[in-house]
């Protein structure tokens, strides 16, 4: 179920992440800990060093590479990361790696949290060679495999030196995708940028070559980055501009785009690459792979794909296989296959042909029309329940939203939610109570909209729950509510005309988190964390 939610939401512009539910935030003070005297002894839990103010310096001095997780005991993301973090620690230890993992309870070790600017949980930082002043932010996947890969890349050379043509040939043939940097001078600025990229892109294998015979073996005379792959065209070259050199971000994106097949199939193995490439549009062919007639439609789909490489990623989704569970997010059922949809990733706008035509010419024309802004998006809308406007909390859908939210005689407070969202579930009772409190007020409407089943033309929802207030009067105004999610604060907001009265800020003993919501973040990356 988790992959269904996350991978589907990647096409919705969302991902599971964000802050913790209300009520899990305030930790009880541990009185017995006040008198505990801590030494610089390094202790472990599940192979992970337990760090605090008194042993942190020792840990840095004894370990060349130390990845430290700053966490909060109440943080759900930290709790989910803990097993993977321990597995990664064990894997690195089994490999006799110089890399070690440690953890700091940032709610207890406030001096360390302040020193390293910890503003969200979990935050992972790499300390190298005892350097305490310039730790490196962790940028890998938040799973055991991702952590191990990221640390291995920093423990050893980020790219393998290919000293002769035979070594290079063996390296190129060793995996489905490899990247080789050909540089006349491995100390050059361009080569250093290449090493930097190799250190960050840990899901690809990198080599470097400077020997003349290796250049000659691959028909090169100038510095070039080559991506070798056992599919499609087999090799893609990125010549180094003598004047501009290499740009790390640009090279990273080029590699992520061209390491993909021209047409990807949406599977468990490819999903990370599909969303990780950050291609702004996805063109989707939904088909049933058990139908030979539908399989044949891939030919025209593939023929159209090359024109848009890097701008539009073409993806085949099997409605009877791995892709079956994402169909509701597109308003589809298996019976709708074969069909085409184009998704603009930044705002989840979905585009559909008036009538599906699967020729390469028709697909090219449709895609270009979307890119040129000549095709309007198709917005999903559920059907309104029969009693949608008689409940204390009005149930809005796409087709009824405008008439309610922009009613100039009413102040409308709307909760945009996802049925599976734990934060939404946690505040559901408060929202119902708010509806009861204002059900007899003619000028105030409390409403909710399932944002996974309904889309709005001018409003894009980036996290759950999102609360918007639409004040009465002309102008189609909208105010986002960002304060505490409890009935009394909601009421103050409403009674004050869509603002909260000024109050002196409270200073909590532990990081408060009553406005938490699930924010967009790449699956399994360091952005999945709880904000302070």
TrEMBL record:
<keyword id="KW-1015">Disulfide bond</keyword>
<dbReference type="GO" id="GO:0005788">
    <property type="term" value="C:endoplasmic reticulum lumen"/>
</dbReference>
<keyword id="KW-0676">Redox-active center</keyword>
<dbReference type="InterPro" id="IPR017937">
    <property type="entry name" value="Thioredoxin_CS"/>
</dbReference>
<keyword id="KW-0677">Repeat</keyword>
<keyword id="KW-0732">Signal</keyword>
<dbReference type="Pfam" id="PF00085">
    <property type="entry name" value="Thioredoxin"/>
</dbReference>
<feature type="domain" description="Thioredoxin">
    <location>
        <begin position="14"/>
        <end position="156"/>
    </location>
</feature>
<protein>
    <recommendedName>
        <fullName>protein disulfide-isomerase</fullName>
        <ecNumber>5.3.4.1</ecNumber>
    </recommendedName>
</protein>
<feature type="signal peptide">
    <location>
        <begin position="1"/>
        <end position="17"/>
    </location>
</feature>
<dbReference type="Pfam" id="PF13848">
    <property type="entry name" value="Thioredoxin_6"/>
</dbReference>
<comment type="similarity">
    <text>Belongs to the protein disulfide isomerase family.</text>
</comment>
<keyword id="KW-0413">Isomerase</keyword>
<feature type="disulfide bond" description="Redox-active">
    <location>
        <begin position="421"/>
        <end position="424"/>
    </location>
</feature>
<dbReference type="GO" id="GO:0034976">
    <property type="term" value="P:response to endoplasmic reticulum stress"/>
</dbReference>
<dbReference type="InterPro" id="IPR013766">
    <property type="entry name" value="Thioredoxin_domain"/>
</dbReference>
<dbReference type="InterPro" id="IPR036249">
    <property type="entry name" value="Thioredoxin-like_sf"/>
</dbReference>
<keyword id="KW-0256">Endoplasmic reticulum</keyword>
<dbReference type="GO" id="GO:0006457">
    <property type="term" value="P:protein folding"/>
</dbReference>
<keyword id="KW-0143">Chaperone</keyword>
<dbReference type="InterPro" id="IPR005792">
    <property type="entry name" value="Prot_disulphide_isomerase"/>
</dbReference>
<feature type="region of interest" description="Disordered">
    <location>
        <begin position="494"/>
        <end position="532"/>
    </location>
</feature>
<dbReference type="GO" id="GO:0003756">
    <property type="term" value="F:protein disulfide isomerase activity"/>
</dbReference>
<feature type="disulfide bond" description="Redox-active">
    <location>
        <begin position="75"/>
        <end position="78"/>
    </location>
</feature>
<feature type="domain" description="Thioredoxin">
    <location>
        <begin position="370"/>
        <end position="499"/>
    </location>
</feature>
